[in-house]
Structure formats: structure tokens, C-alpha cells
Amino acid sequence: MPVKDPYVFPQIEKKWQRIWEEQQTFKAGEESGKEKCYCLEMYPYPSGRIHMGHVRNFSIVDVISRFKVMQGLEVLHPIGWDAFGMPAENAAIEQGIHPREWTLGNIEHMKAQLKNMGFSYDWSREIATCLPGYYIWNQWIFLQLLERGLAYRKKSQVNWCPSCQTVLANEQVVNDGCWRCDTQVSMKHMEQWFLKITDYAEELLTGLEQLRNWPEHVLVMQRNWIGRSTGGQVTFPLADGRGGIEVFTTRVDTIYGATFMVLSPEHPLSDQLVEDPADRSKVKTWIEQSRAELKMKAEAGETAKEGIDTHKKAVNPFTGEEIPIWVANYVLMEYGTGAIMAVPAHDERDHEFACRYGLPIREVVVPESGEPYEDGIFHGYGALVDSGPFSGLMSAEAMDKMAEYAHEKGFGHKQVQYRLRDWGISRQRYWGTPIPVIYCETCDVVGVPYEDLPVTLPEEVDFSGEDGSPLGSNRDFVETQCPRCGGRARRETDTMDTFFDSSWYYFRYCSPDSDRLPFEPSQAKEWMPVDVYVGGVEHAILHLIYARFFCKLLRDLGLTDIDEPFPFYLSQGMVTKDGAKMSKSKGNVVDPDEMITKYGADATRLFMLFASPPEKEFAWDEKGIEGTSRFLHRIWKFYHESADILDIPDHKSDEGGGAERDAAAAYPLRVKLHQTIKKVTDDIGKRYHLNTAVSSIMELFNRIRRDAPELMVAEEGRALIREAFGTLLQLLSPFAPFITEELWEKSGHGSVIAKSTWPRFDPELAREEKVTVVVQVNGKVRAKFEADPDLPEDEIKRLALELDRIQGFVGGREPRKVICIPNKLVNIVV
Ligand SMILES: [Zn+2]
Ligand SMILES: [Zn+2]
């Protein structure tokens, strides 16, 4: 039978976009007293077009968000724009378009694209960081930090990207290249503004304990980035009595084996101690080498380690012995103090260096067991020998005692050290938030008074970025009056790192219109923390560590009482095609607009969600989207072929039909229906396995079609089909919102499916059949038993251990280990 009413998705999708907008279906905060849920994707950079990575990220959050709405939660699902940044400025240089115009134009275009995708945003909360209404609060926060000494200015060696013509934070240097353009990073000495993130190092580390729902690899990356180590700080006095050299060591127990010291070329003393002109110029070359070369040399093989003897000596404060001071290229200023005590008997690199230059090697720790070790270098902990009064102690005890001793004698102490460095936020670019400070000859650095905020970005500047910051080219901007003494002064011309903007934007969504504070504390209390945060793993260090830091700052400013902004973070996998990441440079980009035109937004979303679990890589394949498109066409057709049965009689409410339902309980389809509701509910809400949720929905549909002819003969059967089909639409609606709205409406429902109540399942009916669990002892299959599906691990382990056969093998002993694969296997190791 031909379908009279074909599935014309462009019309349907446009129609529902309009209705959701008119009805403000996804406006948050309309009802109070309900449990809240804040669902968020990392806000996009307005590059001009939505790419498939966005579509995937946003579709994942959209499903969860729509699901929560239907479950009756009060959901906040906002969107905005990370709108400052370099590409806008490059467009200005290359195409002569003002960055503002370029950015706002892109936002308009992308906004339309997002609407086409059917994302359930509360558009009334849209933000764009490049607007003064947003960046005024960056400036406000900065001034607060300035008052508290958490923002400070210092001259330092900075990472410089010669191509972007700007400073990069340590976090923005990836494999010695610029995170944005891959250009090799060089070093430069500049005055910069820093935020004291190191004050929060310990809390950023311990806070990770609370984040049990984060992917383990992200936690590991953050932990390593913070890089806490416990050790001792020891000062080795110079033999001539003029000062000393501080070192940090995690192995103070080896200090009796320290036979020389090594300074980094960048260490301030290097310049002072090296007197020979030829040597000085060598040190200078090392310093001028890019960090990349230095690192390469430091980390590469034997030939790379070079050193210069300063012919000066330091005194090992433990032994009183004078030891030579060297400058070498294998010690980096960025780690520790930029100086080390070299213990060649117990450190590979020191050993190599000592061998090359004929320096003494003295063993002071030996393995406890007396086991032989390779290569003449023992790295482990053990017993101390030739270590004066500490000889005979074990490493751990010795470290404590020696740190204590150093503390008593006044040349050292125990110390915790972090790899994390303060965050340099100054950027020599135009398209960012102006740093709100003024330099006065009399008063020095003065913060712009709060009542003068925002410091607005001037329109007219020279964008080339040559000769320093573009803002410096606008004299009206630069020249100003000192707010304190009224004298002549000049404004700061650097702008803020855009990661400043993205460190707190999720708070702004809670009250995007506040003109009193960055956000209203009462609203933040209502919505924060973000319950579901989804974004790419490329932000695992940069953005997530800064955002966690800002949350703690804002807490300490009294604006919020939460410690962690994102208790649940899901990092979605990459989108690939033909085996490579989808990217312009690879030429394998699929344009979402084309897919929408060809297959519709529903099919595009559904395919992206169906083809792989959110956290895994997703390989684009046009055949796949054809498949999901066919599935949607089949549903459309099925409805139109059976509309007389599927339509609700007399516009009864979707809850009704009690008696008929009871009668239909006997049908197998009813069992399948409840099993599917349970599966989809748990897959979205508990496991975030959106792909398996989609396959269950597809199975249910196939079952409805298969059983329909038989069921349609009796009214109770027809009622069941009607119920099952309505439920199918509801389960599918978070994934394919347009077609489900349309069929929901056509079948006689008076209000939008997006706000309908998520179907409930009867636990009795939803119970899956038993599963067979195999029990192994020491890897050999010894028994099998039947169990209810999805039992907790402890319960399965208990059942396995109670089996008589297994008791025979285990024999009352406590097993060494019990490994359990739910629903499948228990392996007992005895
Ligand atoms: Zn760059
Ligand atoms: Zn002044």
C-alpha cells in the first residue's frame, strides 16, 4: 500500500523548531520545587561552521538532557560561545573584516545550524564571551584577585609562539609546539600577569578524590600535571661562603653519595659562577636554544649531556666535603630549583655525566636483600651505607631522620613540591578581555576602579600584532589618567588568555543577565554543580584544571559554596573517517549541513549516537546513516499503515487504558516492552550507553511490527500495540526528536512529546531471563549456575563460593582473589 503522507523531514523539522521556540519548551527554571539537573557541553568556538565533533558532543548531551526533562526533572541545558580568540584576529589581518563582525556573523550562522539539529537549548540564556556584558565580569574577577594577591605581575621566561605572536601558558605548549598552530615554541623574557594557581595545587589534587565519575585517564593526566612530590629542600653553601645553592630532592637518603652539583644554564648562579669567556658564551647559547632543543638534548641519548666545570665548589652540608659545581644542559630550570645534587651511583643521568667527565661515583644505598642489580646503578630504596650516623638505616626512615637533621641544623627541611606553575594570562593580542590595570609613574600599578568597568575594547587598532600588543596602537586607549592621583598614566595593552573566559562560563548560565555580579549566588546555588558535563579529552588538562581552579576561587570570593564544578564528566571520543581524525587538513571532513539536507537531522543524530558508545571513537560511514534513515522511514510507514489502530481513540490521555492494559499483560510483546523501557532507562540514565539504548529501541520496533498482524484481531491486542508504539516514540524521542514529535501529534496527543512523562516499567515484567554464570577455579571451569541478570558483583561472588562443587576446590580457604565478569563468569584464585 503506498504511503499517502510521505516522510518529508525538512518540513517536519522546521515545524517543530518553530513550535519549541514559540512554546519555549526548553526554558529552564519555569517550575520550582523539582529536582534539578544541569546538562552541559563545552561551549563551542564560533569558527563559522558546526563540525561533526560538535554534532556528536551536543547530541550526547541533548539525549541526556531530554531524557531528564521527560523524567520530570527541572533541567538547565544552555549554550553559548567561546567567542574571543585568535582566528577572529587572523581573519581581520587576512580578510580585513573586524574580529567582532566576523565573530558575531559566525555565531548567527552556527546558531541556525544548532537549531536545525534540534538541540533542546534554553536560548534565553545564550552568552558570548566577546560581549562587554560578559567580559566585564572577567575584569571584575581579575580585580578581586588582584586585591587578594592572587593576580600578580612578574618578569619571567615565557613560552612564545612566533607564529601567533603571543605568549603561551605552560599548559598550552604541547610537545614543544604551540597548542594551536604546532609552531615550535621559543623562550622570551617578558613582564606578565599571573594567577596564583599554585596556591590551590594541593586542593586541586585532593579534590580529584571526589571525582569518582571522571574517566580514570583524565584523573591521571590531572594528577601528573599537578605533579606533587614529597622530598627535602637542602642548601649546599658555596665554599667561598658567598651564598648557597638550593636543591630539591626526593632522595635525600642518597645525599652522602652527592659528589658534584649541576646548575641549569638558566640558573641565575650559572652566569655568575662561570668566568671563562668561552664558557660563558657556551652557557649563553644553551639559554638561547629553544626549550624544545634543550629538552630534546636533555631527554635524548648519551651524546647530548654536555657540561662546563665552573671551577667553584660547594659544601655538602652532610659530609662537610667540598664538591665541584658544574653547569650542564641536562638540568632544566622549569623543574625543581634549576639545580641538583648529583648522585651518580643512584641516578642514571648523573651516572652518565660522571662517567663522561671522570667525576667520582660513590655508592651509599644497597638493596636490602643483597640482590645483584644491573649496570652498576641501583635506583631503588634499600639500606644506607657509608652515610655517617645514618648508615644502616632503611631509606624511608633515613629520609625522615635526615630531613629532621637538616631542619635542626638550619640548612634544609622537608618539602612538598608541585610541577604545576602559576598561570600566565597575558596575551599580546587584540581579541580578548582587556586586563583592567593602569600604570602610573607615581602610583605604579593601579587597578581600574570597579565603577569604570568595563574597560571596553576599542574598535580602531592595528591588528598586525607586530611591535607588541595591537591595543598599543590606539593612543586614545593607551593614554589615560591615573584613577588614584589623576596624573598621566597608560593602560595595560595585553588581553587575557581566553581560558580565563571559559573557566567560569558555566556559572554565568545560571543568571546570564546579572549586572550586579558575575552571577547571582542564589541562582548558582539552585543549579550548580553541573550534573553532566561532556566534551573532548583534548580539554582534560587545560580547561578542566582552570575551571576547577576558578570554581575554588569563586567559592573563596563568597559567590558559591561548591568545591568542584563538574562531579560527572564524560569525554566523548573522536570523530574519524577513513581511519583518521576528521579535519580540514586531512580533507576528510563531512559537513553536517549536507547530511541534514540529505537525510535530516534526526537520522544524523541517531546515527552518531547509535554507531559507537559516547566515550569511544566514532568512524563516519555514509552507509551507516543510510541505515538509520531507513529505520526512521520504516517507523513513519508503519504508523501510516496502521493509523486507525495507533491513534488514541477520542484523544484519551496517554496514561489511560488501564483495563485493556491488564488484559494485554499476557502477551509476550508486553514483556518485551517493559524490558526495553528498563534497558533504555538504565542505558541513558545510569550507564550512558546511548548506542545500546538505540539498538534496544530498534529491536522493540521490529518486535512490534512482527507481532502486529496477530495482535490486531482483538481490541486488547490493539490496545497493546497502541501502547507499545506510543512508548517506542517516547523512548526514541531524545535521539530523534522531530519525527517522534510529529507522529506523537498525529496519533492524537495534545502536547509535545518532549514534555511527556518518561515511560515507567513494571519490574516484574521487565525481569530478564536467567543468565548462566561459569565458575572457574584457578582458570579452570569447575561449575555453572543460573542467576538473575545484573546481580551486584558481591552477590554473584557469594553465590559462586557457596556452590558445593566449588567448596570442594576451595576447601574452606580464603581465596586469594575473586574476579567477576557480571552475568558471565567468576574466577576464583586460590
Ligand atoms: Zn601558535
Ligand atoms: Zn597615580
Q: Summed up, what is this model?
A:
By secondary structure, the chain is α+β, with helices and mostly antiparallel strands.
% residues in beta strands: 15-25%
Number of helices: 29
- Spatial gap, N to C terminus: 66 Å
Spatial arrangement of strands, main beta sheet: 2-1-26-27
Distinct ligands: zinc ion
Q: What percentage of residues falls in helices of 4 or more residues? A: 25-40%
Shape: globular
The total beta strand count reads 34
Structural class: alpha+beta
Mean pLDDT: 90
Report the C-alpha radius of gyration, rounded: 33 Å
Low-confidence stretches: 651-657
The main pleated sheet reads as:
4 strands, parallel
Question: What would you say this structure looks like, in words?
Answer:
The structure is a single chain. This protein has 830 residues and is an alpha+beta fold. Helices cover 39% and strands 18% of the residues. It is built from 29 helices and 34 strands. It has a 4-stranded parallel sheet, covered by helices on one side. It has a 4-stranded antiparallel sheet with strand order 6-5-9-19. It is globular and about 105 Å long. Mean pLDDT is 90; it is low at 651-657. The chain binds zinc ion (2 copies). The site of one zinc ion has 7 residues, from loops.
